[in-house]
Amino acid sequence: MYSIEGTFEDFMDSLFRKYGKNESSKTNNVNDSSSDEDQNLTHLLNLLKFSPSNEQLEILKAKNQPVNGLSCAGSGKTTTLIIKLLAMELLDKINPARILAVTFSREGANEIQKRHKKYCEKLGIMSKINVGTFHSTYKRLIEQFTGKINVMDAAEQSGVLKKLCMKYIPYCNNEKYDSFTSLLSYNINNILFDKKSITSTSKFMMSGIQYDVYEKIVSEFKKYKEENNKLDFDDMQVKFYELISRNEDIREKVRSMWDYFVVDEFQDISKIQLEILKLMVSNPNNLITIGDDDQCIYEWRGSSIDYIVDMPIHFVGTKRIIMDTNYRCAGEILRCIIPSISKNKRRVEKDMKFANDGGSVNIVYCPSDLEGSFYVAKSICESKEYYSKLNEIAVLYRNHSQAMFIVDLLLRENIPIQLKNPEDLLYNNIIVKDLLNIIDFASNQDNRSLFKQVASKILKYMPTHSISNAIKDFEKYKNISWENAVLPYASKQVKEYILNLKSDLDAIGTLVLERSPIKQYIGILEDIYNNRIKFLVDKMGFNEVEITSIFSYFNTIAGQQTIEDFRRFNMLVKNLIKSFANTTNAVKIMTMHACKGLEFERVYIVGDTEDHCPNNFIEKKIMEMFGEDEARRHVEQERRLHYVAWTRAKKELYVTTSKEDMSRFLRESLIFNGSNEPVKANIIDINQDEVNYFG
After folding, report:
1. DSSP letters along 177-193, please?
2. DSSP-derived 3-state class of residue 685
3. Are 254 and 244 spatial neighbours (Cβ–Cβ below 8 Å)?
4. Residues 188-211 pLDDT 10s
């Protein structure tokens, strides 16, 4: 490997000897009569075999002022950033140790580091730049000034918080747990610590979490961390913010460590991270940020569209350079989504272009999410041309419940899949767990523990205290049946229902004992669970159609199995998921949020309806509580999320939706494009008979 010593001309001459001068003599969007500096950049670009767009070139040449590169989806952001780092080192003679390069995820940092190393190998030099995350940088600096710290890993943090949420949040499920953790992260990232500032936000009011519950969980979580001498990732942000903002000596020492700052994915920055960045940067003219305001999708955990849009306010003199050419998405895919994202008011206006023609957009009208799941699974199974590259297929969804049928169907066909969320598995669904518990209780009605789990789900028209008393009596007196424990607390009308419930449970128990298929008693089960469904829909915000789909699924696919077969299959699923975890050839199934930064030849977006995206129930609630401006902010973030999901597709895009409830973002995309020309989308209109299970 060559070392970078002597003049730049010496270095370039060594490269010419390796690659030949002809390779470096081509022009590369740089004027032939430009300065020696421009010519040196041209030589470097040719050696790297990179032909930048005018906007990319402008970023590579920018210096002596704050720079904000606005990079549209698929515009070559990472490549541009890496070559900018190389140019700073090789052309501007900046010591890599004096450059702090950060991004927001470990995966993102590793990807930049890996690609930087590859470019250096092309040049025959060592890669000396170090790319980290905000959190790894904070950890390093905290330890430098205060001593070693122990950081909780994500699994431990999740485990502790889930137990606390189950302890304090009534009827806690995955959605409520997610709501709490996003609220906690939102407050910390926005530097909100007192009751007044926390409870006055729309985020808190929409969470459905009482402040005393929030405070208890936060207090016990803090106690756990103190007892175990640990910090979580958010603690590191707070600790470092306090260090650098309150201690001038430490602040000056931090500022003296680096001369140049490069921030990737700047649209994801939160208030506390922005304030820390301002305190760390001694000379804003040496700050470079790259990101895309249209891909700001993490406001729910503390980032804000305002920070990237208003960067010229935070760092005066900022030069904004827009990379507006998409090299990822085929033309038809990008043409369809531009009209939708352009409707956002809070964004930097762009003239987005595509580099590749062709591509296909396929809109699939389905009667429900369940039929949409059948269509997607069947489409994947029949796409034999993708069998050797299943990793080029992604299924994207807004809510966990949208994915579970697709996961189940693909696994039944032994199609390798990889999940980011275990909630996507059917047997992890809270309603499926309830139904399985009721079936188990029907088969063993003397089981006190099972009765305690199902009592509130099967006993209609009884107040909570009466159910609690019946549970206590059933546990206390071993010689009575569950119905005799309940009847003393039931009114005359309810007593008749209890006796009918006993008869229904006996019928289920008999059918289970006879190894009958689930479909033979799913109707009885639905009648028993009906009151619980009403509670989940009215009080817990569950979608009634999604719940109905679960029963439909048990009537079709899973309904062909006995309960023992269904449980065995679920055990097999666990093993399959583990075995597929390390394969490179598997369909990727993930949320719209998790897909950012990724790309696939074929993408399925499932259930693209108003119910899911933007979720009109939440929109109306925000409108009622906070007014039009907050509701529009919610819709604009959801529109950005829709844009992110859409622009993951390189060649083929399939979107399942409903004619009656089509997402407004999809309507915006199908009506016209930027030139008022007809959008070239294939419409696939299916009905229930056409999507019967294919297995």
Report:
1. HHHHHHHHHHHHHTT--
2. strand
3. yes
4. 999 999 999 999 998 998 888 999
